[in-house]
Amino acid sequence: MGKLKEELRKIYHKKRKKAKEQLKLYEEGKIPFSKLNRLAKKIFYKRLKAGYKFQIKKPEGEANQSS
Question: Which terminus of the chain has a smaller tally of CB atoms within 10 A, N or C?
Answer without folding.
Answer: C
